[in-house]
Specification:
This protein is mainly α. Helix content is 76%, strand content 0%.
Length: 526
């Protein structure tokens, strides 16, 4: 075996080993890559210009000037704000009171709210822990089978991997897009692949909704064949829900999610602009949720800001608001003035929401949490960029391509091996490490083999989601175990997850057998 290949394999194994030992991800990836690069330079088997190209790669279009990645901190801020403002608690309480009287109703509520939280936060750990703390005690108190209760919560918490708008899909879109460009360059002139965040959002929509439907169907069948496992709520001293509670507690977050996702899928706004709308909307929703008597007047400003959004959308679609037009009619001029005033009201609403959060000591903690998560993501991205740069410098990408090409079964055999590797690594590594390190290594070869990039990305997302749910190492199960009461046994959590793992595998098989589930909607948006 050539020395370059030995160093490439050794670097990959050393990185995996260091990560399993618990060393920081970003520093591990970057540090090990740098050490092996220096060793390679000393042995004369690594081209030094490759290492010198790192600064331009970071500052270039792949990271710092990548507009798609700007959406990541905005979506993170949106999720953190909604989490800290207790919007998740409101959703669970309202859904539970609406569906609790039905057999299996608490299970339905957890799944539906999990889907909404997935679309609004996309942070698996936060979703699982929040629903465990809020919903699990109620389900156990109402005599739900602990296996069904914990399995439903863990599975619903992982929906943030697949239901858009999702941070996972944004990062995966960037990685797959770069891999597709690399594959196209290797396939020669006349070949081009375009993979955008909107494509992955559209591609994940049907599988995500079908997965939620499968979860609901499982709870429904359980309520029929094992009614004692999910009884209806017998004692509920809560006052009846008011229309205001339903509109603001359930309707407002749902409207925000639809607005953000609809803007991207309909081509009205790119992901970055849609994410900024989501972050601003989350601040205003949080302001309405937390406001009390000491915030007099601020809720009215926030409500006026939401109305101003409707006004702006209507005027934009009815009138020509372009400034560069040679002749502007009086009607269009009036529309521009009203739109400008409405925009000022919107800014005032965001400012009012921020003031409410500040009054309740939630603004700075939310901003700090968002900055910490964002810094972690981008530091890992920089470390992974150095790792992949050095790995390719040793010819590791060619080695991966040769290995996948030599797997029995052709391209399907290569796909199965790649998915198995990602599935097993999902036991030990977070999705960010897998997306930044493993996806760029295996995806170009799979695209060259003839697989659609969008379809491939959706399969990978579903695969990672299943991995995070699989005992004994699934991340979602660890989060749930840490937040669950001591009387809930670990074996009950594991056994509760098994039926949902089966549903996940069924969904993966369905997308493989019917590629249109992942490719039909993206084809309509192109």
């Amino acid at each position: 075996m050539e020395l370059e290949i030995i160093l490439a394999v050794g670097m990959f194994l050393a990185a995996i080993g260091a990560l399993l030992l618990g060393y920081p991800v970003a520093l591990t990836l970057g540090g090990i890559a740098l050490i092996f690069a220096l060793v390679g330079i000393g042995l004369g088997v690594f081209p030094e210009p490759h290492l010198l190209a790192l600064p331009s790669r970071i500052m270039g279009g792949s990271i710092m000037q990548n507009e798609t990645l700007v959406a990541v901190p905005l979506f993170i801020l949106m999720g953190v704000i909604l989490e800290r403002s207790k919007v998740a608690e409101d959703l669970l309480h309202i859904a539970s009171r609406l569906l609790g009287k039905v057999r299996g109703g608490l299970g339905y509520a957890v799944i539906l709210v999990g889907a909404l939280l997935a679309a609004s936060t996309g942070i698996v750990g936060a979703t699982v822990i929040t629903m465990t703390l809020i919903a699990l005690p109620t389900m156990l108190r109402q005599n739900y089978d602990p296996r069904l209760a914990t399995g439903t919560i863990a599975a619903s918490g992982t929906l943030g991997q697949i239901i858009p708008p999702s941070i996972v899909l944004i990062l995966l879109a960037d990685a797959v897009s770069n891999s597709a460009s690399q594959a196209a360059s290797q396939m020669g002139t006349g070949t081009a692949f375009v993979v955008s965040v909107g494509d992955l959002f559209a591609g994940a929509l049907l599988p995500g909704f079908l997965l939620v439907s499968l979860y609901l169907l499982y709870v429904f069948l359980t309520s029929i064949f094992r009614p004692s496992a999910c009884p209806p709520i017998e004692q509920d001293d809560s006052p009846p829900l008011t229309a205001k509670e339903i509109i603001f507690g359930l309707g407002a977050p749902l409207f925000l999610i639809i607005a953000v996702l609809g803007a991207i899928l309909a081509g009205i706004a790119p992901p970055t602009q849609a994410a900024s709308i989501g972050a601003a909307g989350a601040i205003m929703l949080a302001g309405l949720r937390l406001s009390d008597n000491k915030d007099a007047g601020l809720p009215r400003v926030i409500v006026a800001a939401f109305i101003s959004i409707v006004v702006i959308i209507v005027l934009k679609n009815v009138l020509d608001l372009r400034m560069g037009v040679e002749h502007i009619s009086a009607v269009n001029m009036a529309g521009m003035i009203i739109t400008f005033l409405a925009a000022l009201v919107f800014v005032a609403g965001v400012f009012a929401g921020g003031l409410v959060l500040h009054h309740h000591n939630q603004l700075l903690p939310a901003l700090k949490s968002a900055v910490e998560i964002t810094s972690m993501v981008f530091l890992i991205l920089i470390g992974a960029s150095l790792f992949s740069l050095v790995f390719r410098g040793f010819g590791g990408d060619e080695l991966v391509h040769e290995l996948l090409s030599a797997v029995p079964g052709g391209k399907w055999g290569a796909l199965i091996i790649a998915m198995l590797v990602m599935f097993i690594l999902g036991f030990f590594l977070d999705f960010i490490e897998i997306v930044f390190v493993v996806v760029p290594l295996v995806t170009p070869s799979l695209i060259i083999a003839g697989f659609d990039p969008v379809w491939l990305a959706i399969i990978m997302a579903l695969n990672l989601q299943t991995s995070f749910l699989t005992p004994p190492f699934g991340f979602a199960l660890f989060y749930l175990r840490g937040a669950a009461p001591d009387n809930v046994k670990t074996m009950e959590i594991w056994r509760g997850a098994l039926p949902f793992i089966g549903l996940q595998l069924l969904m993966i098989i369905a997308v493989i057998a019917i590629p249109a589930l992942a490719t039909w909607l993206p084809s309509l948006t192109q």
